[in-house]
Every structure is written in structure tokens, then in C-alpha cells.
Amino acid sequence: MISICQECFIFEEENEKKYVGSSHDEIAILNDIKSKKDIEIIERDHHKMQIQLNSEKVHIKIHGLIPFSSEKKCMSILIEYEGFYFVITKGADDIIQMKSIH
């Protein structure tokens, strides 16, 4: 799920795909997931995402994004996958814990 809830995009340079974004942490996490697991984001724009999961391509529609801010200390994304809708949120432990209690 961490590969879905992020704000990075893919940039191709010299026939190599690279993640670009404002968060160096997100880029490092995505590169780590790509190198250790068989998961890779192969396409991403503001409306859709395609993930290579083992040998399967997973298509995800992006319906909304609340970007990370230092004030909120979290971010959320609203996606659709196989006709089901999901809100995925990530952020500081104390903020996520407080939001999940209510």
C-alpha cells in the first residue's frame, strides 16, 4: 500500500525509469520496494496508476489526493481498484493513531 499512497511520478532518462517527487523519503522507499520486492510503479499521473506486481499489471484509478503538509503531518489518496473504493492514509504515527480512534 505504501507504493500507492505517495506523490512521486516516473521520469525516463537514458532508457531508465526514475522516481521523481518532492519527498526524498518517498523516492527512497519506492526504490527500496522495487529492489527487494517484485513491485514497481510503471505508470503514474494525476488520474491513474499502473503497478507491476510480480508478473501481473494492476490498474488503479486515482479519484483524489490530499497532499502531505507539515501542518497535517499526513496525506491521503482516494483510489478505485476493481470497482471498489479505498482511502489510504499515511503519516506520523501519533496523527494516524488519533485519526483512527475517532
Folded structure, characterized:
This protein has one domain. The model has no long low-confidence stretch (mean pLDDT 85). Helices cover 22% and strands 51% of the residues. The chain is α+β, with helices and mostly antiparallel strands.
Number of domains: 1
Low-confidence stretches: none
Please summarize the sheet with the most strands: 5 strands, antiparallel
Cα shape: globular
Arithmetic mean of pLDDT: 85
* Count of alpha and pi helical runs: 2
Q: How are the strands of the biggest sheet laid out side by side?
A: 3-4-5-6-7
Order of helices and strands: EEHEEEEEH
Structural class: alpha+beta
Percent in strands: over 45%
Number of strands: 7
Instruction: Please give the share of residues in helix.
Output: 10-25%
| Rg calculated over all Cα atoms | 14 Å
N→C terminal distance:
22 Å
Question: What is the element layout, followed by pairings?
Answer:
Layout: E1 9-13, E2 16-20, H1 24-36, E3 39-44, E4 48-53, E5 56-69, E6 74-81, E7 84-91, H2 93-101
Antiparallel strand pairs: 1-2, 3-4, 4-5, 5-6, 6-7
Structure characteristics:
7 strands; 102 residues; alpha+beta; five-stranded antiparallel sheet
Could you provide a short overview of the structure?
By secondary structure, this protein is α+β, with helices and mostly antiparallel strands.
